[in-house]
Amino acid sequence: MTQEHVVVIYPHPDDESFGAAGTIASYREKGVPVTYLCGTLGEMGRNMGNPVFANRETLSSYRKQELMKACKALDVDVRLLGYRDKTLEFEQVDHVAAHLQSILEEIQPTLVITHYPGYAVHPDHNALGTAAIKAVGNIEAVRRPELWAQAIATNYEKELGEPDIRHDVKPYWDKKMAAIETHLSQASGMMSLIKEKPDFNENEELEHLRYERFYRWNYNN
Amino acid sequence: MEAIIKEKVQQAIDQFADKDVYVHLETTNGAYASHFDENAYNVGAFIRNAKVKYEHGKIVGSGNAYRVGLKLDLGWVYAEGVTDYELDHQNRLLMAGHDREGRLMVALEISETPFSHESVEQS
Ligand SMILES: [Zn+2]
């Protein structure tokens, strides 16, 4: 029986915390190792902290530190893929896919989590999701991990149907909030939104954060 | 960064004149503009490490937003909406404009050495 191992592939420090912290925490609770392959350092981010403490040249260093803290809070391994924020869609897809595949062949995960191409809003999300799906598809079928794709776009459910996986991460809420809070340069807006309206029923943003939803990728057709 | 002191920024601009310098120029309203508001447009542009030489440059404006123009042999470098500046420890002139929530809207940076793509540990 293969050892369970989860690999999360997103492009930005904080995607893991906003998008999958509860899911990650549930695997860590079961003792399943989780590795985060983080595509960029988010060095072109618009948020500089509020009040501002970073600038365009120092932002990557802050975000790298924040990422390390988040991964510590979530108790996951992290690997930096070294691409540059906003430019992933201009890289050669095959090149990025081969890069990812080489890491996946080494880790041999049982589950890969990434963004759903075309439904993930940020061009980096769409591009890295495309490459990740390709990378997993290039692994021979007997060793191929399961792949879950996360959509973010408004109304994605209308076009894709109901997600196959819908995790209510309320049991891991404190962990998820702790992970989000480590992203100090990015998360202040979201944190004040949460503090203003801490009630799940009244706050749409909280609902998004509470249910982590994924589509199971079908490689057979 | 701190709020622009026009004279200091002008001094820094003068100091880079007639030298080969690297420029980072950027404007953005974020990758999520049309996600949060379907009537909004995503607009942005950046150029990193453009190598230029300007004969002179000026910072113009007053109060809380400034314009910066650098006159090149064959053209111009221009940024509007600059609010803050910093001369960092590598003697690079970093200028940026931020909105009320502290989000970057425009940046213009000038350096005698190329801008790196690496992060450095913060002390
Ligand atoms: Zn992201």
UniProtKB/TrEMBL annotation, chain A:
Cofactor: Zn(2+)
InterPro entries: BshB2 (IPR023841), GlcNAc_PI_deacetylase-related (IPR003737), LmbE-like_dom_sf (IPR024078)
Lineage top rank: taxon: Bacteria
Residue ranges of coiled coil: none
A GO molecular-function annotation: hydrolase activity, acting on carbon-nitrogen (but not peptide) bonds, in linear amides
Protein name: Bacillithiol biosynthesis deacetylase BshB2
The organism of origin for this protein: Thalassobacillus cyri
From TrEMBL, chain B:
InterPro entries per UniProt: DUF1806 (IPR014934), YojF_sf (IPR036492)
Gene3D superfamilies: Hypothetical protein YojF (2.70.180.10)
Protein name: DUF1806 domain-containing protein
